[in-house]
Amino acid sequence: MKVLFTAAECAPFFKTGGLGDVCGTLPKELVKKGVETIVVLPFFTSMAEKYQQQCEHLFDFTVEVGWRKQYCGVKRLNFEGVTYYFIDNLYYFDRKELYGYYDDGERFAFFQMAVIELMEKIDFIPDVLHANDYHSAMIPFLLKEKYHWIKAYRSIKTVLTIHNIEFQGWYAKEVLPDLFGMGTQRYDDGTVRMNDALNFMKAGILYADRVTTVSPSYAEEIKTTEFGCGLDGILRMESGKLVGILNGIDYDLNNPETDTSLPYHYSVEDLSGKYKNKAALQEEMNLPIAPDIPLIAVVSRLTYQKGFHLVIDEFENLLQFPVQFVLLGTGDPRFEQGFQNIAARYPDKCAINISFDVQLAQRLYAGADLFLMPSSFEPCGLSQMIAMRYGTLPIVHEVGGLKDTVDSFNPVSGQGTGFGFQEFTSYQLMQSIKLALNTYEKAPDTWSQLQKRAMNQDFRWETSSQRYITLYKSIV
Ligand code: GLC
Predict the structure, then answer these.
(1) Closest CA relative to residue 163, chosen from 229, 115, 90
(2) Probe residue for ligand 1, chosen from 380, 382, 399, 406 as the CB with the greatest number of ligand atoms within 8 Å
(3) Buried-exposed string 57-88: b where 16+ CB fall within 10 A, e elsewhere
(4) Which segments of 390-443 does DSSP mark as H helices, in order?
(5) What is the 3-state secondary structure (H, E, C) of 149-186?
(6) Is 131 helix (H, G, I), strand (E, B) or coil?
(7) Per-residue pLDDT tens over the stretch 43-56
(8) Which residues pair with 370 in a beta bridge?
């Protein structure tokens, strides 16, 4: 079976979040299982020099973006068993950030048409084309409505994975003729229109053969008005082709026994190295070296989606307890400032790092006792799984992938792998933090059982990649 996997970001080349992590691991797993997989990505010039140098320039051609004739260079890189093709155009992809530009619609219109036109040129006609998020969600639509005249493409089946339904790609009707060089019939008849805008994600949901999202709970949630961001009706209508497949994490990169970012290594059999990492982290963060004070870590984008308004509300209250709090992330200035202002008054309890540092992140996962992730919604979430693998118990809002991966501690049965709260209020968040602090302090045996259970959870891609293969087989 041949699969073409496409997305806007992919670790380790360039990423802004979990989408990049998934694209950097799932294709590798598919290849390991014998699926012939290629990955097609934009050639963002923010890619590290060492990877750029390994890319081989194959050829170039012209992509018509409406009336514009745009250069499209094709580069190839074989990396860890996977073949990557990069779509090169400096005008579109030589920018500081990956997204957030006035012409993102044009950039990804170009990209999607380039992906489709590339297949013939490299003679790779996949059985399944797997698109991810709105940046490639128009491809299933384009294959049927714009490129149907290419015979070889007619048998291609398509899968669209939704990593976050909040970002849908809303554009003016004129984008169809002006960028895609198409008529407006499917807009005028309502198919790809949503609230008077062209909606890439809606087009993908309707035209893909299968739609997946990244956890079973999120697959249910997005069919409700609360979580569907306006597309819930469409998803209810198409629910027959919607499934939730939980993401995995990279077990080679996230391994407390070998992680090169850590000063000390440890395993579930012997956690002594974890406590050395804790002391090292406290020292690195200029906090008192205190083995018995519970250390809460946050590694996240600081946004409303991640629930930081709840944390800010209770932050000063939380700091009245014997705790240490270490944060790593960037985001909304309101949160960056808010944490820094309060933390300034508690220098021996908090360390706020407004930055993005992959290695420091690993030292937080390893050195902390608790990992705070109170997202308002969470399609899957990877950090809570990484934290668990490092024996750091997550405190989560029980939604989406958080609910599917963290088993909330039940004080009666003693079961669990972390702490959870259901009602999305700062009061309930604080209740679950207090339960965690209390368990840490009063019930060390229970605590170490929770840690062991968390570390023994299986979040390997092994299982999930098999689910994708089964899904592909069901449509080809
Ligand atoms: C998005 C979601 C996150 C998910 C990731 C990978 O970033 O917000 O929950 O883990 O995609 O699928």
Answers:
(1) 229
(2) 380
(3) eeeeeebebbeeebebbbbebebeebbbbbbb
(4) 400-405, 426-442
(5) CCHHHHHCEEEEEECCCCCCCEECCCHHHHHHCCCCHH
(6) strand
(7) 999 999 999 999 99
(8) 296, 393
Residue with the smallest CA separation from ligand 1 atom 12 is 163
Tokens 């996997």: give the residue.
Answer: 5
pTM over 0.85: yes
The predicted pLDDT at position 469 comes to 98
| Residue type for position 114 | A
From the number of C-beta atoms within 10 Å of its C-beta (0-12, 13-18, 19+), residue 274 rates as buried
Give the CA distances from residue 172 to residues 82, 114, 200, in Å, rounded to whole numbers and listed in that order. 37, 21, 11
Residue with tokens 């990049």: 20
pLDDT band at 243 (very low <50, low <70, confident <90, very high): very high
Mean pLDDT of 185-213: 98
The CA-based angle 345-348-352, given to 5 degrees, is: 70
Exposure class string for 222-261: b at 16+ Cβ within 10 A, else e: bbeeebbeebbebbeebeebbbbbbbbbbeebbebeebee
Atom number of ligand 1 nearest to Cα 382: 10
Distance (Å) from CA 177 to ligand 1 centroid: 32
* Choice from 382, 383, 385, 397 to test ligand 1 binding pocket (greatest atom count within 8 A of CB): 382
Distance between CA atoms of residues 317 and 313, nearest Å:
8
Residues in the chain: 476
Report residues whose beta carbon is within 6 angstroms of any ligand 1 atom: 17-19, 22, 163-164, 214, 247, 378-382, 401
pLDDT digits (tens, 9 = 90+) for 335-384: 999 999 999 999 999 999 999 899 999 999 999 999 999 999 999 999 99
CA distance 129 to 245: 17
Q: What are the backbone dihedrals phi and psi of residue 415, each rounded to the nearest 5 degrees, phi first?
A: -80, 155
Strand partners, 244: 213
Distances (CA, A) of 188 to 146, 193, 389: 16, 8, 50
Nearest CA to ligand 1 atom 7: 18
